[in-house]
Amino acid sequence: MDLKDRIVKFLDDIKSEIFEVSDEIYNNPELGNQEFKASRLLKEKISKYGFSVEEIEGLPTAFVARKKGRKPGCRVAFLAEYDALPEIGHACGHNLIAAASFGAAAALGAMSEELSGEVLLIGCPAEETNGAKVILVEKGVFDEVDAAMMVHPGNKTTVYSTSLAMEALEFEYEGKAAHAAAAPHLGINALDAVILLFNGINALRQQLRPDARIHGIITEGGKAPNIIPDRAVARFYVRAKDKKYMLEVKEKVIACARGAELATGAKLSYRNFELGFDNLVTNRTMADAFKVNLQKLGCEDISEEEEGIGSTDMGNVSQVVPAIHPHIAITEGNVSAHSVEFLKAAGSERGKQAALVSAKALALTGLDLMTDEELMRKVKEEFEKTVK
After folding, report:
1. Most buried residue, 27, 61, 216, 262, by most Cβ within 10 Å?
2. Are 365 and 290 in contact (CB under 8 A)?
3. Closest by alpha carbon to 171, among 104, 59, 257?
4. pLDDT given at position 306
5. DSSP assignment, residue 301?
6. What residues does CATH 3.40.630.10 cover in the chain?
7. pLDDT of residue 34
């Protein structure tokens, strides 16, 4: 039995443990940077397979687990996400991501004595909010990694994924309170400034490229109808296909905010309320290898490439190391992530079977990279051309 057959058998043998990881995280949803149960579970599970676990300073629910091969070589990292959404739990299926990456790392690590290189499982908190992968990149966690990968559940299976670069902006206006009926002329209406900001952005949209996205909410808009609001706050995500253009759009949005300040007299301040994400650059050479393995596992319904319209901190990883972020279907095409229907799918038998298939495809692709020097050379060559 060759190594690939042994990896598949190994994962079939431990599938109950993979399903257990998925169920435990699914049934105990935790918000970003609060995933103490999920992080502890994954560290305990992977330690049993001979991995050494390192904590990450400043990120209590992040970790790096390592298992070295017989000698130095290609270092492959499987990324686990495990944060949930507010109120709606694992409606993005991060429980399945964690289970698949755990399984892949355990399986490939089990073959480490016959391989050159190193297998890593990297625990990545808070993808839905402050994107801990951004901080992990800045801390140098990926500096000595040769390839990084994970699989995300979706409503279709595809291997060539992309995402939008994104910045999270909060605008605050400070006005002056006054009686809205008796003395409105003595007030400065901060809410008017926020409303003008929204109107300015709505006018701006027709002058932007089709891939640009700007969407926001008002988080503070006054206390009572008969008081001129002296404080109003709005939050926006600004996105675009590439970071360069996203930053151009960001400056245009800030100009809209300044215009509202000038028009109303309310004093403007703004900040990033979450970390920004780079656009995801899929390494197509790696993705092709993953696709071949997925097909050999019996998955034939693989969709053509589609441009992503969301954002992920995996984009930041893909800017410093060759990376893939394929999707595997757990629902039909009319079901969106972050919905009640997707939540149900993430806890379903179909979802867990998808995690098992994902673990197999990830581990087999990792094996390809660790044993095929020519493949790894092509992966790095593509990365140098498309990213560096």
Report:
1. 61
2. yes
3. 257
4. 67
5. -
6. 3-163+280-386
7. 96
